[in-house]
Amino acid sequence: MITEGQVLDIAREALFLIIKVSTPLLLISLIIGLIVSIFQTVTSIQEQTLTFVPKILVVFLGMMLLGGWILENLTGFMTELWSNFGLYLR
User: Fold this and answer.
1) Domain edges within the chain
2) Which keywords does this chain's UniProt record carry (predicted)?
């Protein structure tokens, strides 16, 4: 039988994994947003789409580059979770 501690450990590992795989893309988006914001301030351009288009493109590029790493981490976690599934049923 699975205990509360084991459930909390699995939940903690899952939350850490979510943070771990999302952090690079969020940082990329943050940096590009900051660069575009500085560019808008310097040039006095207030076009709203100028903020989103570079972010979307760079995050998409980041997903293409980091997708394998993200998938490897997610499948590793799921493989570990399913391989220990028998232990949780006792």
Assistant:
1) 4-84
2) Cell projection, Cilium, Flagellum
Q: 9-21, pLDDT tens digit by residue?
A: 999 999 999 999 9
- DSSP symbols for 23-75: HHHHHHHHHHHHHHHHHHHHHT---SHHHHHHHHHHHHHHHHHHHHHHHHHHH
Q: Which residue has the tokens 């084991």?
A: 6
Tell me the whole-structure pTM to 2 decimals. 0.81
12 closest CA partner among 76, 67, 77: 77
Quote the CA–CA distance of 57 and 8 in Å, as a whole number.
Answer: 37
End-to-end, the C-alpha distance of the chain in Å comes to: 4
How far is C-alpha 14 from the chain's CA centre?
A: 12
Task: Name the residue type at position 79.
Answer: T
In the DSSP assignment, the letter for residue 5 is: H
